[in-house]
From TrEMBL:
<keyword id="KW-0479">Metal-binding</keyword>
<protein>
    <submittedName>
        <fullName>Fumarylacetoacetate hydrolase family protein</fullName>
        <ecNumber>3.7.-.-</ecNumber>
    </submittedName>
</protein>
<dbReference type="InterPro" id="IPR011234">
    <property type="entry name" value="Fumarylacetoacetase-like_C"/>
</dbReference>
<feature type="domain" description="Fumarylacetoacetase-like C-terminal">
    <location>
        <begin position="63"/>
        <end position="257"/>
    </location>
</feature>
<dbReference type="InterPro" id="IPR018833">
    <property type="entry name" value="Rv2993c-like_N"/>
</dbReference>
<dbReference type="Pfam" id="PF10370">
    <property type="entry name" value="Rv2993c-like_N"/>
</dbReference>
<dbReference type="Pfam" id="PF01557">
    <property type="entry name" value="FAA_hydrolase"/>
</dbReference>
<keyword id="KW-0378">Hydrolase</keyword>
<feature type="domain" description="Rv2993c-like N-terminal">
    <location>
        <begin position="1"/>
        <end position="58"/>
    </location>
</feature>
<dbReference type="GO" id="GO:0016787">
    <property type="term" value="F:hydrolase activity"/>
</dbReference>
<dbReference type="InterPro" id="IPR036663">
    <property type="entry name" value="Fumarylacetoacetase_C_sf"/>
</dbReference>
Amino acid sequence: MRIARFSIDGNVAFGAVEGQGTVESGDLVLDIIKGIPYADFELSGTKVPLNKVRLLPPVLPNKVVAIGRNYAEHAAELGHEVPEAPITFFKPTTSVIGSGDAIEYPSFSEELHHEAELAVVIGRMCREVPRERVRDVILGYTCANDVTARDVQKREKQWARAKGFDTSCPLGPWVETDVDPHDLTIQATVNGEQRQLGRTSDMVRSIEDLVVHITEAMTLLPGDVILTGTPAGVGPLHVGDEVAVTIEGIGTLTNKVIKRG
């Protein structure tokens, strides 16, 4: 099931996406969900065309836990070795935007990069999750773009500002609950030109590894998001660019870059 979060007539709701096509095609409809997707829910039978609503970020996470250098070729392109333990960092809730929202080029950077990523959406509160129970705590998967001020990341040596600025975490267009995430094509295009192309099977550490590692330290809540790292091919974004992240079996996340303020 594809679960979208959207607004219509000033109201926010979740809906199940039905039909085939793209967000822009007009071929998709939303069956509005009674309740929230983190518990048992029913479909209302009330349907609205998806192109008549505003898509929102599919979840509003309490926290986004991101993983650095989880693809060997990406680590190499930045001149790094694969770390002995996963590099983890946070992106704040205020960094999250949805498909179709604008990425605002931060005034303190001159080198903005795209990073296409598979995002894991947590479906239930969990801590110290054993490997064999990882699937039980996952609601589904969505597309993400870990937008990074690369010059700031290099200059400041820590990543809070470089990766946590407002609009730096596009998520969407929806959460796919019925997909095997272990060997999916993941790609990024900028203005239609392919920049990144990889497979989730190239991750150094699997989704199971990451959930076990993270929940050893902290409790994850429903709607929390794990960013699983980016394949090689990261590169610059400029004001006016349109960047799209597409993951096989999930969909396409599209955002334009604008000047802040």
